[in-house]
Amino acid sequence: MRDRNIFLIVLAFVVIGPFVQPKVIITEMLIFGIVAVANNIMIGYTGMLSFGQAMFFGIGAYVAGLLLKAGMPLIVALPVGTLFVLVLSIAVGYFCVQRTGLYFICITFAFNQMFYFIAYSWTGLTGGEDGLPGIPRPSLLLDPVAFYVFVAVVFLACLVAMKRIVDSPLGLICQTIRENPSRAAAVGYNVKLYKLTAFTIASTFTGLAGTVYAMLYGIVPIDQIHWLKSGDFIFMTLLGGTGNFFGPILGAVGYIWMSETFSLYWARWPLIMGIVFVVVVVYLRGGIVELIGKVYGSIQRAREAP
Amino acid sequence: MSFLILSQILNGFATGMLYALVGVGLTLVLGVLNLPNFAHGTLFAFGAYFTYTVANLTDSFYLGVLIGPLLVVLIGFVIESQGVRRLYAAHHDYQLLFLFAVALILQETVILIWGPVGFSLLPPKFLAGAVDLGFTVYPKYRLALILFTATIVVALYLMLTRTNVGAILRAGIENREMVKVLGIDINKVFLFTFGLGAYLAGLAGGLATPIWGLTPTMGFDILPISFVIVVVAGLGSILGAIAAGILIGLAQSLTTIWWPEAANVVIYLIMGLTIILRPQGLFGSR
Question: Which three-class secondary structure state does DSSP give residue B54?
């Protein structure tokens, strides 16, 4: 399918979604959709698996939440929160890209937990274990419909921006690095610098999603910065499928839908999620995108057969 | 003040030896199987809970520490033979997601079986109470813990450097393909390594119970620390994991004297410094 058609389907989902499901859930799907697509810039396009993206999501949420609580307007809080994550992700990324493979995973994972502990111990600022409550929404966005429209616009804008990035020469260089880092280096590309760029871009969009999330429930729970959340982000991206730019959106939608449904019935719902993860790993490698591709293909073939 | 520092150094050694056990277990699995074992922390938790249950059933802490970790080995065998082994052909990302899923499932299982409330376990009578060391009065159990884990670590090191099994494991870390070519059943090596890693995590969990108590999140709390140990140590370095474990234990308990809130953050500073000054890790060569 052409990208333009997929984009139209995404647009249709954004428009029709809130009429079918509660607005809050669709809003959450869009916010985590940004995260999952951003994550794929690293996993799918550059071949780096970061186990620490929750730190950027959480920090974006904390910074924006604190600014909004301090009475700053939206137009200040969101950009400052995003900028903060941008600068921080350059600093953290500098350490992470020094090593590759298993080491990279270990380091991102450990940094994630460092920021978790800072948020956990700095109770005066972040509220520690109880999370950061009482984040106000600007009066313009108090209405659920207005807030949904705002999130939808941010989501679509992020999607267009990220699509442009991965289609740019930068995106192609990232894919070269994924395929063969030594050859990319031999041709003259500074591999570490491009990896750091991909890391920063993905993390900044994740942080931006975090700033929007802070306003959704008016609270930043500390779980949002825990390493478990980083694992969930990876699951969303892999569930959707890393082979397609839009794939991870499906993963985020699926993940939110499942967690909202299971958590209604059983307090130990993460157990079910764990089992779903295993099923995906064993039977659904390539994600929902590949499944759709297979079904689409077999329908095509059935039609061609006389 | 100096008494405080000395006893905190002892505390640091006690914690550090437990970290070393956990770290060596993770390093072995990481080195031989080339997998970051995200379930390692929950295996540590299972070790603690099994020890607690066995100790309560038999009325003997010693039996608990003897049998508890062996039950964890069984879990490790199941994870390796039923899950990890089937995924060697899959992309690395999926193996990782699988282990993450196993961690989630085991974590929730702990809460299902033992409930969300923590427990505490007393050390055996012989090791209860404190002993006067001259400069400070120190709990007997912690001294015994330091001596016992030191023995285990030395025994483990001798096994890895002096026996055939150890030679095969170290060869596996260096070059898996070559080990296969030499006619050694790599599946057995993987199973053994995963079991040994699970045993070390479980043993550390069991030994830690009289000091730290039992909480359902204990596995998720120790996991990041064990990853820091691996990064500081150098990927696949056994000696490095032992040294890094003790170093981190000491750093944590010494920071507690002056700035308790920072004790959990200081280990990441050590990691950051290691990456800048010695990216391959303290004992790493790659």
Answer: helix
Q: What count of other Cβ atoms lies within 10 Å of the Cβ of residue B105? A: 19
Which residues is B137 bridged to in the sheet? B132
The gap from C-alpha B277 to its chain's centroid, in whole angstroms, comes to: 26
Number of domains in chain A: 1
Q: Residues of A with CB below 8 A from B111's CB?
A: 268
Count of CB contacts below 8 A, A vs B? Answer: 116
Residues pairing with A132 in the sheet:
A220
Q: How far is it, in rounded angstroms, from Cα B47 to Cα B201?
A: 7
Question: B188-191 contacts: CB < 8 A, separation 24 or more?
Answer: B189/B32, B190/B32, B190/B33, B190/B80, B190/B84, B190/B85, B191/B77, B191/B80, B191/B81, B191/B85
Q: Write out the two tokens for A100.
A: 């590759």
Name the residue facing A106 among B105, B107, B230 (closest C-beta). B230
ipTM of the complex: 0.84
Residue A126 belongs to some domain of the structure: yes
Enter the DSSP assignment of B138.
E
Tokens of residue A40, six digits: 């794929």
A242 within domain boundaries? no
Q: Which residues contact B204 (CB under 8 A, 6 or more apart)?
A: B18, B19, B21, B22, B25, B44, B47
CA gap A297, A294 in Å, rounded = 5
Return the exposure string of B52-62: e unless at least 16 CB atoms fall within 10 Å of the residue's CB, then b. bbbbeeeeebe
**Chain A residues with CB inside 8 Å of B261's CB?**
121-122
Range of the domain at A157: 3-225
For every residue of B187-242, which 3-state class applies, written as one string? HHHHHHHHHHHHHHHHHHHHHHHHHHCECCCHHHHHHHHHHHHHHHHCCCCHHHHH
In a mutational test of the B interface, the residue from A46, A55, A106, A235 whose CB has the highest number of chain B CBs within 10 Å is A106
Select from B86, B235, B268 the Cβ nearest to the Cβ of A103: B235
Structure tokens, A298: 């077999």
- Across the interface, whether the CB atoms of B227 and A106 are under 8 A apart is answered yes
Task: Specify if A48 maps to a domain.
Answer: yes
Classify A132 as helix, strand or coil: strand
Distance, CA of A24 to CA of A169 (rounded, Å): 37
CB < 8 Å to B98, chain A = 277-278, 281
List Cβ neighbours of B64 (8 Å cut-off, separation of 6 or more).
Answer: B50, B51, B52, B53, B54, B55, B56, B58, B121, B206
Helices (H), chain A: 3-20, 23-40, 53-69, 74-96, 101-121, 123-126, 144-167, 169-179, 181-187, 191-216, 227-240, 247-265, 269-283, 287-304
Walk along chain B (286 residues) and give the pLDDT tens digit of each residue. 677 888 888 888 889 999 999 999 998 888 888 888 899 999 999 999 999 999 989 888 888 889 989 999 999 999 988 888 888 777 778 888 899 899 999 999 999 998 888 888 777 777 777 777 777 777 888 888 889 999 998 898 888 888 888 888 888 877 778 888 888 888 888 898 899 999 999 999 999 998 888 888 888 889 989 988 988 888 778 888 999 999 999 998 888 888 877 788 888 888 888 887 887 777 876 5
Would you say residue A188 lies in a domain?
A: yes
User: Is B101–A106 a contact, with Cβ atoms under 8 angstroms apart?
Assistant: no
